[in-house]
Write a structure and sequence with these properties.
The complex is a heterodimer of chains A (about 70) and B (about 140). Chain A is of the alpha+beta class. Chain A has one domain: TusA-like domain (Translation Initiation Factor IF3). In chain A, helix 1 runs parallel beside helix 2. The termini of chain A are close together. Helices cover about 40% and strands about 20% of the residues of chain B. The chains are: A alpha+beta (about 70), B alpha/beta (about 140). The interface between A and B is medium-sized, with 17 and 15 residues.
C-alpha cells in the first residue's frame, strides 16, 4: 500500500480539489492520500468530493490555519 | 440524468473563461464528466497563445482593469488559465470547437491550439450531450 502526499498550502479554488482528484487518479486501491492545505472552503469540499467518488475519509482535522485530510482509495 | 456538466463558452472575456474553467475543473474533481463548447468570442481564446488575451467583462478600462485584476490574482495565488486548462485536460475534460464560428470568423484549424481540442462540432453535438447532463451552463 502506498502513500501519496498532496501539499496545497497557500493554493486557492479550485486547485485543492483538482490536486486531490489527480492524486485519487494516480492512487491504487488501498493507497492513502494525505492532503494539507489552508483554503477554508476546500476543507469542506474535499470530503464532499470524496463522498461523490466513493473514497473513504480516514481523518479530517484543523490545526491553526492549516487543515489535513487523509483519504483511502 | 448522467453525472455530466456541459458548458457553452460563448464569451472570450478573461474573467468568464476563468469561471468556465473553474466550474469545469470542479465538476471533474467531484467525479463528473465535463465538456466545454467554445463558440463565438470564446472560440478565439482557443487560438495559439490566445487563452488569456481577452478583455475583462467589466471595468476593463482599455486593459488597465485587466492588468489590475491579473496582478491581484497573482498576489492571491489564483491558478493561471493555462494551468487550469492543462488540469482540465489531465482530468479527462473534453473541449469542442464550434465549426460554424470558425467559418464566420475565418479561423482555420491550424490557427487553433490543436493540443487542447478533442473534437469539432455544431449545435447537434452540444444538444446530444446536454440532453443527458445534470448541469448545463452558458457562459
Amino acid at each position: 500500500m502506498g502513500e501519496i502526499r498532496v501539499d496545497v498550502r497557500g493554493e486557492t479554488c479550485p486547485v485543492p480539489l483538482v490536486e486531490m482528484r489527480k492524486a485519487v487518479k494516480k492512487a491504487s486501491p488501498g493507497d492513502i492520500i494525505e492532503i494539507v492545505g489552508t483554503h477554508p472552503a476546500s476543507k469542506k469540499e474535499i470530503p464532499m468530493a470524496a463522498h461523490a467518488l466513493a473514497i473513504k475519509i480516514i481523518s479530517d482535522e484543523q490545526i491553526g490555519d492549516e487543515w489535513k485530510i487523509i483519504l483511502q482509495r | 440524468m448522467s453525472d455530466k456538466a456541459t458548458i457553452v463558452v460563448h464569451s472570450g472575456d478573461i474573467d468568464k473563461i476563468s469561471s468556465a474553467l473553474i466550474i469545469g475543473n470542479g465538476a471533474l474533481a467531484m467525479g463528473m464528466e465535463a465538456s466545454l463548447y467554445f463558440t463565438f468570442w470564446g472560440l478565439l481564446r482557443l487560438k495559439k497563445d490566445g487563452l488569456d488575451k481577452g478583455p475583462l467583462s467589466k471595468m476593463n478600462m482599455f486593459g488597465l482593469g485587466k492588468m489590475m485584476i491579473k496582478s491581484r490574482m497573482k498576489k492571491n495565488n489564483v491558478a493561471s488559465l493555462r494551468r487550469m486548462i492543462t488540469d482540465f485536460k489531465e482530468l479527462g475534460g473534453k473541449i469542442i470547437a464550434c465549426e460554424m464560428t470558425m467559418e464566420i470568423m475565418g479561423v482555420k484549424a491550424s490557427d487553433l491550439d490543436q493540443e487542447l481540442i478533442d473534437d469539432y462540432g455544431a449545435v447537434g453535438t452540444y444538444i446530444q450531450e446536454a440532453r443527458d447532463s445534470a448541469i448545463t451552463l452558458f457562459i
